[in-house]
């Protein structure tokens, strides 16, 4: 290649916005006089056999609103660098040497790796070996630390929210309990945000322990108010009350989650004899066109990744720190999950609306401060706190007016 060159690849599970990143990289590179190549099927295209496409503004026109990735992707193969959380697997040095040879032969000044925690763990090993890489965070679970949002998340919660909207009408019509199972291996961000936006009555996430008794108590509480249907959204990674997950174990890879929705439904039918139906969104959350937010965010990530290469900031990952796009070391982002805070504002807002997280009875105070080591505040405690707050506010007002 006659001109300077930038490489890009998409790795791990697909999601809406990957093509927007590719487009952002290609157009930015072209503006700066760089050629751009895209490696096929993630990291696998980097070595034996080397497979890539020459990317230009012309052959990437019209991909902004397309789901998936024109480069292909995989979360399996020779470049698997993690099994589970923080379980790093060292890559074969010969494999790394082969990648380095490919980078040198193609004259690539920097390689942009688009992926989640596992894919970026590979990029970190590339960096440690001396391969010039930068990262772009991608995961619908939004569980990658060091960034406020990953692209793909907004599109996933729109899909889940739309499903809840549809389930709401059929649940109300037939007076049924409806359980929606969504993705979320280690973090319940999709379930939480979609649950709030889709008016779910119960939200079950990996970060908050739940029991079937408490879920059923919420259903009975709603029935006592004349509401004969209930919407439940559960993350696939939510732990069972007795511990463990509903999953299929796989040799040399993370377990394949799925089926928690059926467990929740069976528990409800057994305890309450209520007709309960289950819907599993599965890979529907990964498909389709990206939302406006994801298109903008992914485009910014692509352009900023090119800037990181030009500035020689290898081993860095582009990140979103509202309202700016900045960067952090990849090592700071991988193996550190960003999980739902059980006492965070979103959870507390949901509780204030009467949403149950399955960790307490429906008639316990929704505004109580909750943790695993502290008791639930009583209604009397909250009234006292409210009175004290009011007294402080009145005293401050009198002082300001004097």
> Hey, roughly how much beta strand do the residues contain?
15-25%
CATH arch. level architecture of the largest domain: 3-Layer(aba) Sandwich
Radius of gyration from CA coordinates: 24 Å
Number of helices, where a helix is a run of at least 4 consecutive DSSP H or I residues: 11
Q: List the uncertain runs.
A: 371-390
Q: What top-tier CATH class of the largest domain fits best?
A: Alpha Beta
| Count of domains | 2
Shape: elongated
Instruction: Tell me the CATH topology of the largest domain.
Output: Rossmann fold
Account of the protein in words:
The protein has 402 residues and is an alpha/beta fold. It has helices at residues 18-31, 93-105, 117-129, 153-174, 189-197, 212-224, 260-272, 292-310, 330-333, 345-352, 379-401; strands at 5-10, 35-39, 52-55, 108-115, 133-137, 177-182, 202-204, 230-235, 247-248, 256-257, 276-280, 316-321, 324-329. It has two domains: 5-151 and 290-333, Rossmann fold; 156-286 and 341-352, Rossmann fold. The strands form three sheets. It has a seven-stranded mixed β-sheet with strand order 3-2-1-4-5-12-13, sandwiched between helices. It has a four-stranded parallel β-sheet with strand order 7-8-6-11, with helices on both faces. The longest helix is centred in the C-terminal third of the chain and has 23 residues, at 379-401.
């Amino acid at each position: 290649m006659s001109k300077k060159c930038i490489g890009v690849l998409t790795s791990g599970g697909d999601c809406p916005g990957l093509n927007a990143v590719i487009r952002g990289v290609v157009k930015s590179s072209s503006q700066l006089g760089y050629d751009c190549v895209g490696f096929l099927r993630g990291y696998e295209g980097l070595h034996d056999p080397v497979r890539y496409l020459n990317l230009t503004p012309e052959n990437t026109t019209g991909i902004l609103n397309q789901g998936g990735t024109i480069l292909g992707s995989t979360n399996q193969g020779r470049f698997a660098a993690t099994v589970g959380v923080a379980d790093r697997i060292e890559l074969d040095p010969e494999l790394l040497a082969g990648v380095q040879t490919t980078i040198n032969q193609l004259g690539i000044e920097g390689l942009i790796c688009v992926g989640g925690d596992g894919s970026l763990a590979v990029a970190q090993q590339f960096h440690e070996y001396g391969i010039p890489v930068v990262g772009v965070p991608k995961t619908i679970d939004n569980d990658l630390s060091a960034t406020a949002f990953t692209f793909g998340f907004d599109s996933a919660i729109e899909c889940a929210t739309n499903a809840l909207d549809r389930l709401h009408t059929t649940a109300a019509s037939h007076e049924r309990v409806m359980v929606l199972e969504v993705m979320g291996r280690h973090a319940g961000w999709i379930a939480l945000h979609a649950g709030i936006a889709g008016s779910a009555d119960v939200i079950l996430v990996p970060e908050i322990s739940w029991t079937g008794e408490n879920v059923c108590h919420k259903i009975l509480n709603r029935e006592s108010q004349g509401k004969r249907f209930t919407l439940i959204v559960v993350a696939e990674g939510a732990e069972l009350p007795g511990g463990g997950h509903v999953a299929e174990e796989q040799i040399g890879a993370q377990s394949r989650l799925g089926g928690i929705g059926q467990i929740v439904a069976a528990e409800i039918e057994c305890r309450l004899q209520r007709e309960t139906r289950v819907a599993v969104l599965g890979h529907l959350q990964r498909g389709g066109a990206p939302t406006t937010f994801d298109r903008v965010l992914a485009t910014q990530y692509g352009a900023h990744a090119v800037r990181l290469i030009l500035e020689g900031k290898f081993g860095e990952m582009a990140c979103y720190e509202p309202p700016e796009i900045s960067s952090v070391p990849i090592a700071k982002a991988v193996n550190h999950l960003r999980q739902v805070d059980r006492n965070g504002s979103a959870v507390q807002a949901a509780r204030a609306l009467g949403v149950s997280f399955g960790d307490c009875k429906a008639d316990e105070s929704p505004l109580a401060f909750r943790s695993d080591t502290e008791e639930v505040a009583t209604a009397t405690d909250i009234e006292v706190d409210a009175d004290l707050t009011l007294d402080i506010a009145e005293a401050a007002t009198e002082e300001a007016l004097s």
